[in-house]
Design a protein that fits this description.
Among the domains are: 299 residues, no CATH class; 68 residues, no CATH class. The chain is 66% helix and 0% strand. The relative contact order is 0.06. It is mostly helical.
């Protein structure tokens, strides 16, 4: 009955072609119905029906992501079939779905071993391909002997695939090197180009992980480099030598000549030519002849119309630009021309090369060229240009910048570029220049004034950081301004409502600085000592810089007052507080100013307040090291890494909500209200308690509440007190200026003859600390040790075995002599133990030497 059911299933079973046709029709629920059908068919006893069902499942898993791990055992059953068509379906499903955690993985070990020993080379190929994909440590260990046998197979297809499997076997089971490595090296002498390509490809991958272990094979690779005519084999050999040349510098002089011969050939392939150039640029740059020839050959790529070849040429130049910049300068015209290419990758590589050419002499010219390209480029590449210029000019505390007035103007032009989105970077550099370079502050204020006055910039949110920096610089260095009234008017223009509240607060703070400076100048001019100087300067015909009259200072005060009145009712707390603070200051001095105009008294309250504010803003801000926080000593007794798990136990009564019997869940607001109510009840109970707390604890609690009252939940008594006395404002009026700043400059003025101003540099912390990559020693890897042991020979192991044998014989003799002569027992034991320790220490030294001794290149090559 079961055989008839299987026959019916196979007759009416839908094939893979039928499944594909049904998918293309787009029927709803077709995949789910097909999976149900596959689950039923795959349980059949007929292997043909099972294999077709597994084939359809593999198709759905590959294209539609259907899970097929449940069919792992059925795949093992299909693989065991004697028909090749079934084996191919089964091995494909196993390679597609198996991994190291598959439960039935070990069930296929014997089946793979059986197929590896098959006389059918195609079955052997299927087993090798499957092993290369899913080979685990257990499979690699159990099948190493079979792989070793196939490495010497007379069938080219089998041997080529066995060579490819070796890479997986070595990775999973390094001890397989002792068995297979010698035969793998023998295949380097094969005359079959396919076998040679396979084995060189394996060594190319192995060398990429640990090149030092393969230096003894340099003669074999050199012979292939000279004799081979296969471009792909030569490319892989060149990749190997590019790694080996770093380990053994003498190797570069030997391989430079054959590489130059390949580059001089007339009809050499572009792929081989580029690999030769890249090898010379990356590893043989010390060979002058090869380097000059490579620079000549790279021009063929730069002038080619194919964007792919042009990109490869530019990429090769970026490799050599660090050591030999002259190679890039010789191709400067081609690099600049590549900036206009349609391919974005070509333009990006050209930009990197231009940045590599920047120095103190040509930074102005290259920046001008790049800014012209930025105006004509798309938004993405435009910002790449701006970012590259910013990074290059700010490197090592602006070491290539001589004229900071020009650079500030350049930063202003960047802010004017339509697609500029580098506001944060420009902001940081402008604040950094303002704090480091004192001679550039006048130009900084001029550029900042131009930015703040322009109302068109307020609508671009990418420029808001730059405007924040410009406002900060205008207020911080207002003494360098020729028109403080214009700056204050620009800071309080109506369109500032488009700015975010954090930047609006900076605008208000800068307006306060302008006001304090202007009032200070005005009151200083009223003093007898300063008024005499003002009269002398006026009589001589020269205008007094920042001179204020009563009408002008009154106009400034009224303008600031009117501008801040609208901001005092804003929703943001910070903006509202700053606006009201400045308005309170203005209200205090306006009456005093009117009395000052009619009175000769110089010691007024307004003058004292202005003098106090001038002292507040007189402290100069300087650059701060990025490692400044690390230099702050840790207070004694402060444990930053202390575990705070006990906090939950301490605050359990406050943090846990009060659960009601008729409700199973609460909103977060309910939880907070319950906790607050509980705190208030507890405070009231403490207040009404008949037992007063100790005097010391109550005084400490009162002191803590006084210092950190903002973080305490007010009790009912405190609420009543606040209702009676008014609102208790514990917030601070201090608001730090922006961390970053940006500046715009217009009509840059070049001052080449001007000496470079002093740039404040910090002893440490100007540049971020970069930890060097700790390159793991190749001797610590099991595969590397196994490779080195296979190449160094068995001499060390034999010597070690001999030492162990001597130790064993010495121990036996010691025991026999101790039985015969008791008097000589201690002397013999000490003597033999001493010899044993010497032998043991010598053996340990030999083992360490076999591991730490560097692999040398044979003299045959050098």
């Amino acid at each position: 009955m079961s055989s008839s059911n299987s026959l019916m299933d196979s007759l009416f079973q839908r094939s893979l072609e039928d499944l594909i046709k049904g998918l293309r029709l787009g029927e709803s629920n077709f995949i789910s119905r097909s999976l149900e059908e596959i689950r039923r068919e795959i349980k059949a006893t007929d292997l043909s029906t099972k294999s077709v069902a597994l084939q359809k499942l593999s198709y759905l898993a590959a294209l539609h992501g259907v899970d097929m791990t449940w069919a792992a055992f059925h795949a093992v059953e299909v693989v065991s079939s004697s028909r090749f068509a079934h084996k191919r379906i089964g091995y494909h499903a196993i390679a597609q779905s198996f991994n190291d955690q598959t439960p039935v993985l070990l069930l296929i070990t014997n089946q793979i071993r059986k197929d590896l020993n098959s006389s059918n080379e195609y079955e052997v190929s299927l087993a090798l391909e499957c092993l290369a994909r899913i080979g685990s440590e257990d499979l690699a260990r159990d099948l190493t002997s079979e792989v070793f046998t196939l490495l010497g197979s007379s069938k080219g297809l089998v041997r080529k695939k066995a060579i490819g499997v070796v890479l997986r076997v070595f990775d999973k089971y390094p001890d397989a090197v002792k068995v297979c490595f010698k035969r793998l090296v023998e295949n380097l002498e094969s005359s079959d180009p396919q076998l040679l390509s396979a084995v060189v490809g394996v060594f190319c991958e192995l060398t990429r992980k640990d090149p030092r272990s393969y230096l003894p094979l340099a003669p074999e690779f050199y012979k292939i480099l000279v004799d081979s005519r296969n471009n792909w084999v030569l490319i892989k050999v060149l990749k190997i030598f590019s790694k080996l040349a770093f380990i053994e510098p003498r190797l570069g002089k030997k391989v430079a000549d054959p590489i130059c011969e390949h580059m001089r050939k007339q009809n050499v392939g572009k792929s081989l030519l580029f690999e030769c150039i890249r090898t010379v640029f990356s590893s043989l740059s010390d060979q002058e002849t090869a380097l000059k020839l490579a620079v000549v050959k790279i021009k063929e790529f730069l002038v080619d119309d194919d964007p792919n070849l042009k990109y490869l040429g530019l990429h090769a130049l970026t490799i050599v630009a660090g050591k030999h910049l002259w190679a890039v300068l010789e191709n400067k015209e081609a690099v600049v021309k590549a900036m206009s290419d349609e391919d974005p990758n070509v333009k990006l590589e050209a930009l990197h090369l231009l940045m590599a050419m920047v120095n103190e002499d040509n930074v102005t010219e290259i920046s001008r060229i790049l800014m012209n390209y930025a105006l004509k480029s798309d938004p993405l590449f435009c910002n790449e240009i701006i970012g590259s210029v910013l990074v290059a000019c700010s490197r090592n505390s602006y070491e290539i910048i001589v004229d900071f007035d020009w650079y500030l103007s350049l930063l202003g032009e960047m802010a004017r570029v339509p697609y500029c989105q580098r506001g944060k970077e420009i902001e940081y550099q402008l604040i950094d220049i303002g704090t480091r370079v004192k001679d550039a502050r006048m130009e900084l204020v001029r550029v900042s004034r131009a930015l703040v006055i322009d109302p068109a910039l307020l609508g671009n949110h990418f420029l808001h950081p730059i405007l924040s920096a410009a406002a900060w610089a205008s207020g911080e260095y207002v003494e360098f301004s020729k028109a403080p009234y214009e700056i204050a008017e620009a800071l309080l223009q109506p369109r500032t409502c488009l700015l975010p509240p954090s930047i609006t607060a900076i605008y208000i703070h800068s307006a306060l600085k302008v006001l304090v400076f202007s009032l200070g100048v005005y009151f200083s001019a009223q003093d007898p000592t300063s008024s005499t100087l003002a009269q002398e300067s006026t009589s001589s015909g020269s205008s007094v810089v920042n001179g204020f009259t009563y009408s002008s200072i009154s106009s400034l005060v009224n303008m600031i007052e009117s501008g801040l009145t609208s901001l005092s009712g804003t929703i943001d707390v910070e903006v509202q507080e700053r606006a009201k603070s400045v308005l309170g200051f203005i209200g205090m001095i306006k009456h005093e100013m009117a009395e000052k105009a009619t009175s000769q008294d110089t010691e007024t309250e307004a003058r004292k307040a202005i003098a106090f504010m001038e002292d507040v803003f007189s402290e100069e801000l300087g650059p701060v090291s990025s490692t400044a926080q690390e230099k702050v000593p840790l207070p004694e007794g402060l444990e930053l890494n202390e575990n705070l798990e006990g906090l939950q136990e301490i605050c359990r009564e406050v943090l846990e909500p009060i659960a009601e019997s008729n409700s199973s869940s609460f909103y977060s607001s309910d939880k907070v209200s319950f906790s607050v109510a509980k705190l208030r009840i507890r405070d009231q109970e403490e207040a009404s308690s008949s037992l007063p707390p100790p005097l010391e604890s109550s005084s400490l609690l009162a002191e803590h509440r006084k210092r950190h009252g903002l973080y305490y939940l007010s009790s009912q008594k405190a609420d009543d007190h606040n209702d009676g006395d008014g609102n208790d404002n514990n917030t601070s009026n201090e608001y730090p200026p922006a961390n970053e700043i940006s500046v715009d400059s217009f009509k840059p003025k070049k001052k080449i003859s001007k000496p470079r101003p002093v740039v404040v540099k910090l002893d440490e912390g100007d540049e971020p600390k970069t930890k060097p990559d700790a390159s793991s020693s190749s001797n610590g890897e099991p595969l590397s040790r196994a490779i080195q042991t296979a190449l160094m020979g068995k001499g060390k192991e034999k010597e070690s075995e001999k030492d162990n044998h001597e130790i064993h014989l010495d121990t036996e003799n010691t025991e026999q002599s101790s039985r015969r002569e008791n008097k000589k027992k201690k002397k013999e034991k000490k003597k033999k133990n001493g010899e044993s320790s010497k032998n043991r220490s010598r053996r340990q030294r030999d083992e360490e030497a076999s591991v730490t001794k560097p692999v040398e290149v044979p003299d045959l090559l050098l």
